[in-house]
Design a protein that fits this description.
Blueprint lengths: L3 E6 L4 E6 L2 E3 L10 E6 L5 E8 L8 H16 L6 E8 L6 E3 L13 H13 L1 E3 L2 E8 L16 E11 L4 E11 L17 H17 L1 E2 L4 H4 L1
Antiparallel strand pairs: 1-2, 2-12, 3-4, 4-5, 5-11, 6-9, 7-8, 9-10, 10-11
Length: 228
């Protein structure tokens, strides 16, 4: 069973649960200021948080957000987009992240009466909606190179679990990318067939990591998006 720990990100401005066996790559090499990169100490899977400028027109709809997801995926893989196959895309809910429609409510800590405070909290909840977010599962299979050796450590394919979180007011898109390289000899090939719905252990674990992030991701300092 995977053990998790609450992990501060971007100096504590964000927080989310990550597997405790994942290491902070910034302690090993330089990482761009807008990224947080974590890697499995016992394997090859990585989790990357990326704060980027929002793409696409104003508003949110499956069409607008779908085009934004495609744009980010193309930027992620670059010229190798023809090696990518998207298997599914679904709407995603971040349990601890809500978008407050009205900012005129008085914080409940300023109320002296307990019932009034409870009412204020209820009004806050009613005046909030889920922040638009989507997740896709894709695979990237590298082109076969002539003369490559069978013992090469290059992956057979890399599974990509990409979550897009859209913060329109902050003009920000947050990407959470879990890359899962499948290297020959490091996984059971018979267990993986996405066309038949067989994810295998590595992808199954990564889906669990993503779900835990959706449940625990929280913004503690919104001024972060003015700085990155």
């Amino acid at each position: 069973m995977t053990r998790y720990k609450s992990t501060p990100l971007y100096g504590g401005a964000l927080v989310a649960d990550l597997p405790d066996k994942f290491a902070d790559v910034s302690k090993l090499r330089e990482v761009p200021d807008n990224q947080e990169v974590w890697i499995d100490s016992d394997g090859f899977t990585s989790i990357i948080f990326d704060i980027t400028e929002r793409v696409g027109p104003a508003g949110s709809s499956p069409e607008i957000d779908g085009r934004a997801m495609t744009t980010h995926l193309e930027e992620l893989v670059g010229e190798d987009i023809d090696t990518v196959k998207v298997w599914n895309t679904t709407e995603t809910s971040f349990s601890r992240l809500r978008c407050v429609k009205s900012h005129t409510l008085v914080p409940s800590t300023l109320f002296f009466d307990g019932n009034t405070a409870a009412l204020a909290r209820a009004r806050r909840q009613n005046d909030s909606t889920d922040v638009p977010a989507y997740t896709l599962i894709a695979t990237q299979t590298p082109h076969a190179k002539s003369g490559s050796k069978s013992g090469s450590s290059a992956p057979d394919f890399t599974a990509i679990i990409l979550t897009l979180l859209r913060l329109e007011k902050e003009s920000t898109d947050i990407l959470v990318t879990i890359n899962v390289p499948h290297i020959k000899g490091e996984y059971d090939e018979a267990d993986v067939d996405l066309e038949l719905g067989k994810q295998g252990k590595l992808i199954g674990d990564a889906v669990e990591y993503a779900a835990r992030i959706w449940e625990t991701f929280k913004v503690k300092d919104w001024t972060l998006f003015q700085e990155v």
